[in-house]
Amino acid sequence: MKRAGANTVIFESPPGVISAASSVGKAESKGPLAACFDVTNENDGISCGTWEHAEAALVKQATDAALKKADLSPADIQIAFAGDLLNQCTASTFGFREKNIPMAGLFGACSTFALSLFLAAAAVDSGMASLALAEASSHFCAAEKQFRFPLEYGGQRTPTAQRTVTGAGAAIIGKNSKKIAIRAGTVGRITDYGIKDMTNMGAAMAPAAAATIAAFLKDTNTSPDNYDMILTGDLGRIGSEILVELMRREYAIDIKKAHADCGVMIFDGNMQDTHAGGSGCGCSAAVICSTIVSKLESGQLNRVLFAGTGALMSPLTVYQGDTIPCIAHAVYLTNEE
Amino acid sequence: MFYFCERSGLDDKTSAACVCISLIVLTGILTGFGVFDTVAKFAGAGTMVPITGFANAVVSPAVEFQTEGRITGTAVRMFTIAGPVIVYGCTAASLYGFIYYFFCRG
Questions:
Q1: Into which CATH architecture does domain A180-335 fall?
Q2: Residue A302 contacts by C-beta under 8 Å, 6 or more apart in sequence?
Q3: Contacts of A242 (CB under 8 A, 6+ apart)
Q4: Cα–Cα distance between A106 and A118 in angstroms, integer?
Q5: H helix intervals, chain A
Q6: pLDDT in tens, A225-240
Q7: Which listed residue, of A70, A146, A243, A249, carries a Cα 20 to 30 Å from B85's Cα?
Q8: Does B100 map to a domain?
């Protein structure tokens, strides 16, 4: 492991993705990526009494599926990095309650999966663990309850609003992956352009994504042409447009051709009434652990720069009139074959 | 609804009250069954601005937070959305009442 530039860490003997699995709810199971997910749930309650337990059930489903794919047991995992959107990392805590895996709870809002992937890769590369688990989850109903309005409330959402993805993704990171390697990563800095609108997270998070992507490209001395895909976590349609424009104007980098966004990919914007797209920790986690990992495995994608974006606000600070601080973490994934 | 009330022998004032009560009860039931948000998506402000919107604002958190218990969930959270309307609605009504009482009574 060595540092490159001001922000980036290069993994010298790159840890790899041993296996990855995703678990999603009803709306995601009807979206364009439906066929890619490992576990699809017919209803968002997942036979649990509360939404919080339903999200914990998603965490369990994704973890179990990832372990099964790699033919491993929970005892083989030496550390798990997991996080979600709920207060006190509720879903991750309850999802790992019976697993008996050493676990570090993370909060990076919607950027959590990028952070957990980075930390898991760093743990493996540093020798702290031979197998580490990276996980993130979110649940539409649980997030609405904590951050917005009750589900049955009839107030209408704005066109800039995004739908929190009901889903979880788990990736097992280890030394000897033959196919997918995590080559480098950048932990982002907090960026705040003064957005106060809780229903326009894409616009709030775009500057953070731009800063992290620009920092990564500078530190690694690369350009967007070096990547098959520059994938952001959950900027949605509006945030994606802002990101491309911002990269062009502030950093003179054109990422339009390579850019894709998990929040745009996961739902069908015309059919599913999801406004600006998907959001939440589970959004990037489920997309990466399904279609992106399988495309990297099959060679359809070879070099993916993933920048997970997170809006680090709490409803409390928003009510206090404060702006929304945002962050983005980048992880560089490659096909080794 | 008003016509139906009058046909059953109620006077205008009582009929108006019955219409309000019926709308509130209907909204409560539709919210409880999880249908009202779909109706509101279609009808928009037509359902959210009048008394039906207010009923929905009280019933929806009551339903949502029942998992946290009858007291700490339903009762505590029931007025999270409607509370400000009640507080400032009553304040405004009192203020106008005072103004009317002292300055406008002919």
A1: 3-Layer(aba) Sandwich (3.40)
A2: A228, A296, A334, A335
A3: A202, A203, A206, A235
A4: 12
A5: 26-29, 51-69, 90-95, 112-125, 140-147, 201-220, 236-251, 262-266, 281-287, 293-298, 315-319
A6: 999 999 999 999 999 9
A7: A146
A8: no
Give the pLDDT band (50/70/90) at residue B106. low
For residue A247, pLDDT beyond 90: yes
Q: Do domains A15-174 and A180-335 have the same CATH topology?
A: yes
- Domain A15-174, what fold? Peroxisomal Thiolase; Chain A, domain 1 (3.40.47)
Report whether A11 contacts A122 (CB < 8 A). yes
ipTM of the complex: 0.87
Of B47, B53, B63, the CB nearest to A150: B63
List the one residue out of B25, B6, B8 whose CA is nearest residue B16.
B6
Phi, psi for A124 (deg, rounded to 5): -70, -45
Please determine, for residue A306, whether its predicted confidence score (pLDDT) is greater than 70: yes
Domain of residue B47 covers 2-78
CA dihedral A117, A120, A123, A124 (to 10 degrees): -100
Give me the residue from B31, B44, B48 closest to A152, CB to CB: B31
- Alpha-carbon distance B39 to nearest alpha carbon in chain A (angstroms): 8
- Is A49 an 8 Å CB contact of chain B? yes
3-state secondary structure of B79: coil
User: What is the rounded average pLDDT for all residues in chain A?
Assistant: 95
The answer to whether residues B73 and B65 touch, using CB atoms and an 8 Å cutoff, is yes
Q: What is the domain partition of chain A in residue ranges?
A: 15-174, 180-335
Mean per-residue pLDDT of chain B: 89
pLDDT reported for residue A295: 96
| Contacting residues of A for B41, CB less than 8 Å apart | 154, 156
- Percentage of residues of chain A with pLDDT beyond 70: 100
Supply the pLDDT for residue B11: 86
Contact check, Cβ <8 Å, B64/A154: no
| CB contact (8 A) between residue A154 and residue B67 | no
Q: Give the nearest partner residue to A150 out of B39, B47, B61, using CB atoms.
A: B61
Average pLDDT estimate for A263-290: 94
Rounded CA-CA distance A90/A96 in Å is 10
A200-228 confidence digits (pLDDT tens): 999 999 999 999 999 999 999 999 999 99
A157: contact with B, CB 8 A cutoff = no
